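Dear all,

This email documents one entry for the complex benchmark we are building for the journal club exercise. For each entry we list the sequence lines for every component of the assembly. Then comes the predicted three-dimensional structure of the complex as a C-alpha cell string, followed by one or two observations. Please use this as the template for your own entries, and keep the labels exactly as they appear.
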Amino acid sequence: MAHEFRLLETGFHTAAFNMGLDEALLGSVAEGKSLPTLRFYGWKPPAVSIGYFQGLHEEVDVDACRAAGVDVVRRITGGGAVFHHYEVTYSIVVPLSHQLARPNILDSYRLLLGGIIDGLALLGIEAEFAPINDIVTGGKKISGNAQTRKRGCILQHGTILLDVEVDLMFSLLKVPQEKARGKLIEDVKERVTSVQHFFKIRGQTPKFKLLYEETVAALKQGFASALDLSLVGSSPDEAELAEAQRLADEKFASRHWTELR
Amino acid sequence: MKLELIGKPGGCKLLRMTLEVEPPLSPASRLQRISIRGDFFAVPEEAFEEVEHELEGTALAELGLRFDALVLEKGIQCAGIGGAGLAELVQNLLVQKEQQHGT
C-alpha cells in the first residue's frame, strides 16, 4: 500500500520564510499533526543559503548580496552554500519511525533522492546519486541536497537547477581553490548543469514559469513512483504559517543566527 | 598563536579550522580553542558545539582520535567529516611549519 504524504506547493517566498516554513512543517509532522510532507517552493527575492556549519563571511560576499538584492540565510541543515534563483526547491519531512526513514544519513539520501532521479528521468535527463548529497548528470551537478534529523523526524531539502547564472552566482559565493581542486576540475563553471540545458539541446527554450511547472510536475511523479507515495494536495494551515513567520522573524532573519559561525 | 587551516582531506568535504594553541607549535601543543567549519553534516548539529568545546586541552597529535571518540560518545552521526581528515589537516600544517622552520 502506498505511503500517504501531504503535498504542498507553496510558491515563492523570502529566504527567512522558506526556512521558517520548512522548520514549521517539521514541527507539525513531529507532533503528529500532519502526514509526512513533500513541499515544492521557490525564492523571491533570490537568496544564498549556507549550511549550518559554514562561516558566513568565509562563504558569502554579504555586501555583494545586499547590492544585488539577494537574501542571505543560514539553514538548519549542514552542507554547502547555494545560490537559489532559477531552480525548484523541495523539502521532505518523514518521521524516523516511518518505513521510508533510514537510520544512516547516506542510506537516507540514497533512498529519498530516488524521487529526484526518477523525476529528472521523466524530463529526459539521466542522472545518478553522487554521495554524499548530490545528483549528477554526465558528471555535472544538477541537484544539491541537505538533511537533518530533529524532533524524531528527517528533514531533507534541496534544489534542482533549472538554469545557472554562473557569473552572478560566483560574484555572491566565495569558492575556495581547495574545493575546486578537490573535484579535479579546473573551472568551477564546468561542474554544474541545469534542466534548461537539456531542453536547449532538444531545441526548446521554455520560459522560467513553464520550466518550473514542468519540473515540479515531473518531480511529483518521480517521488510518487520512487518512494511509492500517494500524494494528497494541501496547503499549510494557519498555525503552520504563523509558526513559519515567527521563525522567519525571530530566527532566520536574525543577525545572531545568520552570523552563528 | 592562532592558526587557520583549510583543505579537503580524503573522504571529507571542505573543512576549515581555526585553532588557538600555546606556542611553540608542535604535535604536543594543546588546543586552547578550536572552531571547525565547512559543508559537512553532523547530526544533531547542536551537539557539535559540545565536541568543539571538549576538544580544548587536547594535544594536536591527538585531535583526530579525540574527535572520533567524542562524536561516538555523544551519538553524533557525521558525513563529510572525521577524525582522520582533521588529523590530516593538522599534520599538513605541522609539516609545512617544519619546512618553513628548516629553510
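Observations: The domain at 2-102 of chain B is CATH 3.30.390.50 (Enolase-like; domain 1). The helical segments of chain B are 45-54, 63-73, 83-102.
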